[in-house]
TrEMBL record:
<feature type="binding site">
    <location>
        <position position="195"/>
    </location>
    <ligand>
        <name>[4Fe-4S] cluster</name>
    </ligand>
</feature>
<keyword id="KW-0004">4Fe-4S</keyword>
<dbReference type="GO" id="GO:0046872">
    <property type="term" value="F:metal ion binding"/>
</dbReference>
<keyword id="KW-0227">DNA damage</keyword>
<keyword id="KW-0408">Iron</keyword>
<feature type="binding site">
    <location>
        <position position="211"/>
    </location>
    <ligand>
        <name>[4Fe-4S] cluster</name>
    </ligand>
</feature>
<keyword id="KW-0234">DNA repair</keyword>
<dbReference type="Pfam" id="PF00730">
    <property type="entry name" value="HhH-GPD"/>
</dbReference>
<feature type="binding site">
    <location>
        <position position="205"/>
    </location>
    <ligand>
        <name>[4Fe-4S] cluster</name>
    </ligand>
</feature>
<keyword id="KW-0378">Hydrolase</keyword>
<dbReference type="InterPro" id="IPR000445">
    <property type="entry name" value="HhH_motif"/>
</dbReference>
<dbReference type="GO" id="GO:0051539">
    <property type="term" value="F:4 iron, 4 sulfur cluster binding"/>
</dbReference>
<keyword id="KW-0540">Nuclease</keyword>
<feature type="domain" description="HhH-GPD">
    <location>
        <begin position="44"/>
        <end position="193"/>
    </location>
</feature>
<comment type="function">
    <text>DNA repair enzyme that has both DNA N-glycosylase activity and AP-lyase activity. The DNA N-glycosylase activity releases various damaged pyrimidines from DNA by cleaving the N-glycosidic bond, leaving an AP (apurinic/apyrimidinic) site. The AP-lyase activity cleaves the phosphodiester bond 3' to the AP site by a beta-elimination, leaving a 3'-terminal unsaturated sugar and a product with a terminal 5'-phosphate.</text>
</comment>
<dbReference type="InterPro" id="IPR011257">
    <property type="entry name" value="DNA_glycosylase"/>
</dbReference>
<comment type="similarity">
    <text>Belongs to the Nth/MutY family.</text>
</comment>
Length: 228
């Protein structure tokens, strides 16, 4: 069992207040110039670093210009062009088939609804959320990647374990809707800079005094509202 809802909401508020000051201009780290390129990049980013994806898509987007090129290409050729990406064979198939579906069912345009996006091959709710937020400027949920999953639990904001359950929990009165989009970016930035998976730097953490998972030897009160 986790903390009561009001306690977790207060904790989320304290975390957001500090991280938005630490990272005032959060941005997506994937490179793209249109909605379809965004979709491709996010599909490729599953269990792969954004840095690696950006290196691959720099050439990929020169070779394939839009869904028509992906749909008409041989899947094996796409796979060869993304073979440094994790699960490149599966992802090549997803990109080819998603491009076909976009052409056949959406007039070549990336759809702007959660249901239509998640109907595309290789697109789950996380990918759809990213495309909606950064491609269509629509926020229907919270993107829960590995950083958001890890830090939300470490910070006592949720006790849920799976991305799907964490997202529902955070949206249900824990994270204010106006922060759904940036919550992800703040936690990703903090997870990369400070609260890493294997060796969190608690001594340099702006959240250390309100973090129930701190490695430092002192008592921590959730969302005590202290300044830093």
């Amino acid at each position: 069992m986790g903390e009561p809802l009001d306690t977790r909401a207060a904790q989320a508020e304290a975390v957001i207040d500090r991280l938005q000051r630490e990272y005032p201009d959060p941005e997506i780290s994937l490179d793209f110039s249109n909605r379809f390129e965004l979709l491709v990049a996010v599909v490729l980013s599953a269990q792969c670093t954004d840095e690696r994806v950006n290196k691959v898509t720099a050439d990929l987007f020169e070779t394939y210009d839009g869904p028509e090129d992906f749909a008409s290409a041989d899947v094996d050729d796409i796979a060869d062009d993304i073979d440094s990406i994790t699960y490149y064979n599966s992802k090549a198939g997803y990109l080819h088939d998603a491009a076909e579906r976009i052409i056949e069912e959406h007039d070549g345009e990336v759809p702007d609804s959660m249901s239509a996006l998640t109907d595309l091959p290789g697109v789950g709710r996380k990918t759809a959320n990213v495309v909606l937020q950064h491609g269509h400027d629509l926020t229907e949920g919270i993107v829960v990647d590995t950083h958001v999953q890890r830090l939300s639990r470490r910070l006592g904001i949720t006790a849920e374990e799976t991305p799907e359950k964490i997202e529902r929990d955070l949206m249900d009165g824990v994270v204010p809707r106006e922060h759904w989009k940036n919550y992800t970016h703040w936690l990703i930035a903090h997870g990369r800079d400070t609260c890493t998976a294997r060796n969190p730097d608690c001594e340099e953490c702006v959240l250390e005094d309100v973090c129930p998972s701190s490695k430092l030897d002192h008592d921590v009160d959730l969302a005590d509202g202290s300044e830093w």
